[in-house]
Amino acid sequence: RGRRTIPPMIQLHNEIVGFTRLMEPRPEEVKRREALVEEFRKIVHAVFGKECKMELFGSQATGLFLPSSDVDVTIHTGLAKGDASKEGGEEEKSEVTAKQQREQEEKDMDSWEASAAVNAASSPLRRLESALRSRWLDDLTYLEVIENTRVPLVKFTHGPTKISVDVSFDMESSTKAAALMRTYIQAMPPLRPLAFVLKYFMASRSLNEPYTGGVGSYLLQLMIVSFLQHRERDGYNNNRVSVYNLGSLLLEFFEFFGMDFNFVTTGISVRHDGMFFPKGARDKKEVFWQESRPFSIAMENPLDLTMDVGKPSFRVQLVQRAFETAFKVVLAHVSDPAEPCNSILGTILPVTDEMRKRRDQVGFDERAGADPRQQRRGSDGRGRRRRNDDGPASKRRRYN
């Protein structure tokens, strides 16, 4: 019979540390992505002029990207917000009478399809698509324009580097969001490793794309921030000392958002050290309550209080079920398992070819990592909570 050398919760912590070291960006990967961005910048300048500004945001800007993560780019064309799929800014109004205008509209009806085709072809999205086809025809393995979404996109994959790029237009708030997230990463040490594990967890279940109802990177990171804020408040109110055992934090995150949190009634804000609010409140209902999608995640954008970051994430029930299942699987392996487990984290994170390749390159040990010496007051030597500590071993509270 096998024998554990370290307590299971400590083992899980070490595995998370090791996974983060394995999957975090390497210098050569960063350089390869930067080189692709610079080549793409040349195309952007050729299409929209050198005065056009292009910026990175998302995981590429925060350093939280996985090997399979897209590069998120926004192009500032100077168009009005929401006009990325149109030809340009507001046209000058011609000085014609109402009668002449009606006559012109009737005349144009016969050539409506041709006119629509011309307008579509001259939109920034289509102009960029055309330039990519002509300049990188042999290098692209995927190219698509997604127009009928809250944020229109041009998506493409560069074949030689196998890097995917998502291009949006005039998303000024995106770069500010990246700066905000870098601030949170510095203030909350557990945020970075938890983000790597949870991003991989969501991607492996195809729950990571907002335009298909999943949880995007920014929303997921805000959920982690909210969880850490809540945990800090809860520990302070109950006179407990916080500790950064990543295994315990991951387990609690799965429990909190998989079993305890009521997405139907409750919204999330990370402002002022974090808080929850009723989605149906008079001052919140217009922004955060969706009659047709009551299960959507209501996440206040800390940079724009009138915007719901979670609005596109309508598959929240699948997300919640995935979290609940992961909680139960991990808990079974850290609570007196009948047999030792080579990798507790491996029970919820599928091994991909990319992971095997990276593991072989660095000689990765699944249980490698730093030994978390700090133990939360109220936990036993195996990292489990005692009965007087809030968590899986005690009666849970529901947040609604």
TrEMBL record:
The keyword Isomerase does not apply. Residues 80-113, 361-400 are annotated as: Disordered. GO terms for cellular component: nucleolus; TRAMP complex. Keywords: Magnesium, Metal-binding. Gene3D superfamilies: 1.10.1410.10, Beta Polymerase, domain 2. Signal peptide: none annotated. Residues 12-186 form the Poly(A) RNA polymerase mitochondrial-like central palm domain. GO terms for molecular function: metal ion binding; mRNA binding; poly(A) RNA polymerase activity. GO terms for biological process: polyadenylation-dependent ncRNA catabolic process; RNA 3'-end processing. Residues 94-105, 361-393 have a biased composition (Basic and acidic residues). This is Polymerase nucleotidyl transferase domain-containing protein. It comes from Grammatophora oceanica. The lineage of its organism: Eukaryota, Sar, Stramenopiles, Ochrophyta, Bacillariophyta.
